[in-house]
């Protein structure tokens, strides 16, 4: 399989926040934003793997800013690292100012997807070749996040977490 770039997996979804999607403070429900991020990340992982993908985990979500009613929201997802059968997808959420059109980063998340065959069994995915400084930074950090997750789940021994140990050596 030929390696792909994060840009090849990029998925962008833009939508407006409607009244039925808001809480009593007239801000977008967190669950609604999670669903939008999951859809964009799924498209990104599918573009990278060209396979059916399933959400394996939501590793990180940061609700940094409330997204008010009527806001134009853009969810941008790119594969940040590909492992054997799984892919980490980094999601950035942008909010557009109604008056100026300026975009501000509102939220971010990291999801993990697994590529599967028609019977639901995991299948290999192409490698990822990051190009920009940000893509390289996210690529490197993805291995540390994976090792931490495996360590906390008891699926990796501390001595085998080489990337994590390197932070402290």
Overview of the structural elements:
The chain is built from 3 helices and 5 strands; from the N terminus they run βαββββαα. With 169 residues, the chain is of the alpha+beta class. It has one domain: Thiol Ester Dehydrase, Chain A (Roll). It has a 5-stranded antiparallel β-sheet with strand order 1-3-4-5-2. The longest helix is centred in the first third of the chain and has 20 residues, at 30-49.
**Oligomer status:** single chain
Query: What is the number of helical segments per DSSP (H or I, 4+ residues)?
Result: 3
Strand content: 25-35%
CATH topology: Thiol Ester Dehydrase, Chain A
Estimate percent helicity: 25-40%
Give the total of beta strands: 5
Strand and helix map with partners:
Layout: E1 11-16, H1 30-49, E2 52-63, E3 72-82, E4 86-96, E5 103-116, H2 133-152, H3 162-168
Antiparallel strand pairs: 1-3, 2-5, 3-4, 4-5
In short:
With about 170 residues, this protein is of the alpha+beta class. The longest helix has 20 residues, at about 30-50.
Which tags fit this structure?
globular, alpha+beta, 169 residues, 28% helix, Thiol Ester Dehydrase, Chain A
